[in-house]
User: Which sequence fits this backbone?
């Protein structure tokens, strides 16, 4: 049983055992019924509730679960039925908006259902949503809710979610119906040879979700969109969610003024969705993701309530209107994979989420850099981005800042002050870093992997107490600055494939925290004797250092040495401190690669041949 924070009193213990026996230990029934008993303030109320349960001695478990439903208020029942019929598995924030569009108190209702154990909240996984909280309703509870919703005759139902039911309503569309919400897979309707989608007589319809999902392989692309001849919506519609919407615009007779949510993902729309007098003044969310024919953003200049705009994958879109900067309630803008988008206007002041990855932008608006509210900014794989704004960076971003794949980037100045990781993979035009990066006191990781023209690693002007990992592999660095000693927390330093690197500074091995060092594929000829002082160094990689001529005495706690194809190596440590003390056997005995043992032996032979 669910007792909140307290176990049952002695008076309630006997009743609790009866309830557990009655539901035969079913965990879901116990959880739901525990919530209903939790509302009981004394033993008498417990007994009344228990009598309700025992009214269904021979019924299925859903009759037991229904007790919690019967205890809900009128609005909470409506919210429960909406979730059971339509919203199970969707994001909490999204469901709240849909419920609000139906004049329900979405957030309060969701909390009541959680308290009644009719729904739960889990972590969602859908990309780019406002919240990662997801509504979950157990299958048995959902089945009960759907059964309640279908009890009435079809012409009196307010919710339709079975394709055949929707089909029956549409073919008999002769009079007004009380239906308020519909969810349907149009592919199933289309198989019944229905090509008319006239919803206009459903004067109370507030919410419409249409999918188009066929699961057969090898179907011609001509069937990607529904084959619809006529289409009309009632002006009462507040949420229109149509996956693969088949037309280029909304119906001319439809007034979008009541729309709050509009989602036309992967659809054929091209630009002007509505006439000027159809402007959706109440619109809060619009999603036109993967609309590959969309050449311009539909006119949202009058949609001053807009909060979220998702244009992800609109690959024909070339510009964003300048009025966007005046959309004062806009918090979310997703332009990912708008591959023809080259320039942006200034951004509105309340923006929190901005995704520009894989666009063709050449520069960021300066306003982006000065926004204090942006908590998510993605500019990966912007291959034409040449520089970042030069004004002071006021972004409050924390965590990793990635410029991966920004091949044209050649300079930047400031970054968000709380950045803890900088990722600069494949920035092939980047030559140097600004010394400002040493002002980033939270920085833990710095990666310039495959920045093939990067040459100048800046002098480290002050101690970096948190920087633990640096990856310069595949860069053109020629030297590591002597000030490397200021990287007092450095644990892993990767210089693999730095083919211009010839010298390793002594100061590197004064770092008492250094644990891993990769110098493979470099031009180094020797390693400073000071390496012996690197007491924490446990892994050293030197493979393909074909100019390496000597290997000094190594630190005592080294556990892994990799030195394939060091073809110029002539001397290894010294006879008194290495070979005679069994260093080669030590490596071999720890399970190291066999070639290391032979390398030591061969080097010993070379030294004796030279004498």
Assistant:
């Amino acid at each position: 049983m669910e007792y909140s924070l307290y176990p049952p009193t002695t008076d309630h213990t006997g009743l609790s055992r009866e309830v557990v026996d009655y539901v035969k230990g079913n965990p879901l029934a116990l959880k739901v019924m525990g919530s209903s008993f939790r509302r009981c303030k004394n033993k008498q109320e417990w007994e009344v509730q228990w009598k309700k349960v025992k009214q269904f001695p021979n019924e299925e478990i859903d009759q037991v679960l229904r007790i919690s439903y019967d205890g809900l208020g009128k609005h909470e029942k409506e919210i429960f039925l909406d979730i059971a019929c339509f919203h199970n598995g969707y994001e909490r924030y999204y469901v709240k908006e849909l419920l609000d569009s139906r004049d329900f108190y979405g957030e309060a209702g969701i909390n009541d259902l959680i308290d009644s154990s009719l729904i739960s909240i889990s972590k969602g996984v859908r990309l780019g949503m406002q919240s990662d909280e997801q509504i979950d309703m157990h299958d048995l509870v959902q089945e009960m809710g759907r059964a309640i919703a279908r009890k009435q005759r079809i012409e009196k139902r307010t919710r339709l979610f079975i394709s055949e039911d929707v089909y029956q309503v549409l073919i008999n569309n002769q009079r007004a119906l009380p239906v308020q919400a519909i969810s349907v897979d149009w592919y199933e309707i289309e198989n019944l040879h229905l090509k008319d989608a006239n919803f206009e007589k459903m004067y109370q319809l507030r919410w419409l979700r249409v999918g188009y999902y066929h699961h057969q392989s090898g179907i011609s692309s001509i069937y990607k969109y529904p084959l619809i001849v006529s289409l009309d919506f009632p002006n009462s519609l507040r949420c229109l969610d149509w996956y693969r919407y088949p037309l280029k615009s909304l119906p001319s007779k439809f007034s979008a003024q009541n729309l709050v949510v509009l989602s036309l993902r992967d659809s054929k729309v091209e630009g002007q969705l509505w006439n000027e007098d159809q402007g959706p003044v109440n619109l809060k969310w619009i999603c036109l993701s993967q609309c590959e024919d969309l050449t311009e953003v539909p006119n949202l200049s009058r949609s001053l309530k807009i909060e979220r705009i998702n244009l992800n994958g609109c690959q024909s879109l070339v510009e964003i209107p300048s009025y966007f900067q005046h959309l004062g309630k806009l918090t979310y803008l997703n332009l990912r994979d708008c591959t023809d988008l080259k320039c942006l206007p200034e951004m509105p002041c309340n923006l929190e989420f901005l995704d520009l990855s894989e666009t063709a932008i050449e520069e960021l608006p300066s306003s982006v850099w000065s926004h204090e509210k942006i908590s998510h900014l993605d500019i990966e794989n912007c291959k034409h981005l040449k520089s970042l704004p030069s004004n002071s960076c006021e972004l409050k971003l924390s965590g990793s800042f990635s410029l991966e794949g920004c091949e044209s980037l050649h300079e930047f100045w400031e970054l968000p002050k709380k950045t803890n990781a900088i990722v600069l993979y494949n920035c092939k035009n980047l030559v140097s870093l600004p010394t400002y990066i040493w002002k980033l006191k939270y920085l833990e990781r710095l990666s310039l992997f495959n920045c093939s023209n990067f040459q100048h690693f800046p002098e480290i002007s002050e101690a970096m107490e948190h920087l633990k990992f640096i990856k310069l592999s595949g860069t053109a660095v020629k030297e590591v600055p002597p000030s490397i000693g200021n990287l007092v927390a450095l644990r892993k330093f990767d210089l693999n494939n730095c083919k211009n690197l010839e010298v390793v500074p002594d100061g590197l091995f004064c770092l008492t925290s250094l644990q891993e060092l990769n110098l493979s594929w470099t031009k180094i000829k020797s390693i400073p004797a000071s390496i012996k002082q690197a007491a924490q160094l446990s892994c050293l990689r030197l493979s393909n250092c074909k100019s390496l001529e000597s290997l000094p005495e190594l630190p005592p706690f080294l556990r892994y040495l990799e030195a394939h194809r060091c073809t110029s190596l002539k001397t290894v440590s010294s006879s008194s401190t290495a070979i005679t003390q069994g260093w080669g056997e030590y490596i071999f005995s720890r399970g190291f690669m066999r070639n290391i043992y032979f390398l030591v032996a061969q080097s010993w032979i070379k030294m004796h041949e030279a004498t």
